[in-house]
Amino acid sequence: MSQQIIIAEQARIAALIKDDRVDELIVSQGQYQIEDIFLGTVENVLPGIDAAFIDIGESKKNGFIHVSDLGPLRLKKGSAGITELLEPKQKVLVQVMKEPTGSKGPRLTGNISLPGKYIILQPFGQGVNISRKINTETERSRLRALGVLIKPPGTGLLFRTESEDISEELLIEDLENLIKKWDNILQLNEISNPPMLISRDEDFSLKILRDYVNSSTTKVTIDNKHAIERAKNYLVNNESNFIIDFHNNSKDDHILEKYKIHSNHSKGITTKGRFTFWRLYNH
Fold it and tell me: N or C: which end of the chain has fewer CB within 10 A?
């Protein structure tokens, strides 16, 4: 099944089109985004549900973190309760893992993940993991051996599906960029006062390309010339043979209108990955 990706850069809306139908609508708006990293402060600890509320400063809705998601914040081993691990006014580095819903604030985790083009760096993780979609055992062995060699001590690596058959040089470059990003986050963490947004991926188009381009992609259409150039540079080592096309909103119908992305057939909202998705059903 072929896939076309439509990106409305300024509106921060993208759509995955399969068999001439909008399959998923991706919206990146609002105060919180999945994978945002915040420096927060523990507001209160709830021993009854082994959780805590964290002030991350973006709104009146505090973030929520469960004891099972504390990660490196869980300094003590064993089955210690939340009151033994966190205390009010404590400074914590957390990442958004689920967007706010209704009256609830974002769900947070202490297990930070930094996604790259080919690799996901898990600063507090362990071991080397390979995407299940990479099926060739020789390729899995190659990536696992490389991961063991290049992985910084005390961290975890996940090789994304896109890393298959990519040269060692490009994989190492991707990891080095992630390590630099993590170093910058740690520096900001040391000198900043909570609550504060520490890290957010601002390039919407590149995030979409990073997460949704695959072997079935035949065309990517973007309504921003600068984003087109960034996309071409980003995909320079991508062996997929697909078209990158510019849509001029000022001369033609708006990109969302042309591809009938504003649909009245949405049946519910789900949260998946980094953004909020409307699953569309066309009958």
Answer: C
pLDDT of residue 33: 78
Whether 30 is in a domain gets the answer: no
Q: 25 exposed, middle or buried (CB, 10 Å; 0-12, 13-18, 19+)?
A: buried
Does residue 160 lie in a domain region? Answer: yes
CA distance 175 to 74: 26
Give the count of domains, the chain. 3
Mean pLDDT, the chain, rounded, equals 84
Q: What is the pTM of this model?
A: 0.77
